[in-house]
Amino acid sequence: MQTFMDDDAGYERWLAGHPDLFVVNAERTPRPSYLVLHRATCRTIGGTPARGARWTADYIKVCGSRVDLEAFAREVGGAARACGLCAP
Ligand SMILES: [Zn+2]
Description:
Elements: E1 2-4, H1 8-17, E2 22-27, E3 35-39, E4 59-64, H2 66-76, E5 81-82
Parallel strand pairs: 3-5
Antiparallel strand pairs: 1-4, 2-3, 2-4
The structure holds zinc ion.
């Protein structure tokens, strides 16, 4: 499992190398109320971010296998909510 904060280049490299894995979008200090699980291929967490936005600044990306990310969410004290678009 790898966490990207203020490292968009590293995050984009990870996405390109792990299209079969998963990403949790979380606040910089992760809270159980906002943990969203995506497939690494989801267009809402990759590609060109909306104008002026960065992928790993306001939110961080925790990347890895689904099992690892579910364990991460439990450590934070909650459960990851599945993205409605990529339906992981
Ligand atoms: Zn998604």
